[in-house]
Design goal:
The chain is built from nine helices and four strands, in the order βαβαααααααββα. It is α+β, with helices and mostly antiparallel strands. The protein has one domain: Glutaredoxin (3-Layer(aba) Sandwich). A four-stranded mixed beta sheet has the order 2-1-3-4. Strand 1, helix 1 and strand 2 form a beta-alpha-beta unit. Helix 2 crosses helix 8, helix 4 packs across helix 8 and helix 5 crosses helix 6. The protein is globular, with a radius of gyration of 16 Å.
């Protein structure tokens, strides 16, 4: 019997990319069978909720200049450490909302979400593709036999559903991505995978 772990992610997070890559390539293997339930949420909405702003308020960078420089250096180190292919995303701050909306639609339908997630992460962090571009999304969705999702991914109901899903995550204690939740405990960050593995094996 597999243990269930919810994984909250946004494609725009390089650390979510590293976690996805480690689990996909099995460079991290938990001590027991696990069902990883990847749940798309918007990091921008999480930040807005924490700041008491409207969910779709304009982006307000929460990082100071020194922390931003550290983040960039740390992402490069992590890529080298994990052996994960990494090229700076183009554009530098991609709009992940349409891709997340499509991911949520697939997750809710219970169909081909893993294949699509892998394709989007690779397109953004390795291929320097614009994941807000309809053609890129269509290409990633084609690998899942779910291209009919494309039109809905850009719709207002899909954005509303993403906002609602993110709000539920926030109310359940999720404040950043990636976050792993096992038996109500939140393990925040790709670097907590090893601690989570320890907890799963107890």
């Amino acid at each position: 019997m597999s243990l269930e772990v919810d994984v909250y992610y946004d494609f725009r997070s390089p650390y979510a990319y590293f976690a996805n890559d480690r689990l996909r390539r099995k460079s991290f293997v938990p001590p027991v069978p696990v069902e990883w339930r990847w749940r798309p949420v918007s990091i921008d909405i999480l930040l807005n909720l924490q700041a008491g702003r409207d969910v779709w308020a304009p982006y307000d960078d929460p990082l100071s200049a020194p922390k931003r420089r550290h983040l960039i250096a740390d992402v490069r180190r992590c890529a080298a450490f994990y052996g994960a292919p990494l090229r700076p995303p183009q554009p530098a701050r991609p709009n992940s909302v349409p891709a997340l909306c499509a991911a949520l639609l697939l997750y809710q339908a219970g169909t081909r979400h893993d294949d699509y997630r892998h394709a989007i992460f690779e397109a953004l962090w390795s291929g320097q593709r614009d994941i807000a571009d309809r053609a890129v999304l269509a290409e990633c969705l084609a690998s899942t036999d779910a291209r009919d999702v494309l039109a809905d991914a850009f719709s207002t109901p899909a954005r509303d559903a993403l906002a609602a899903e993110t709000r539920r995550a926030y109310e359940a204690g999720i404040f950043g991505v990636p976050s792993f939740v096992y038996e109500g405990e939140v393990y925040f960050g790709n670097d907590r995978l090893d601690m989570l593995g320890w907890r799963l094996g107890k």
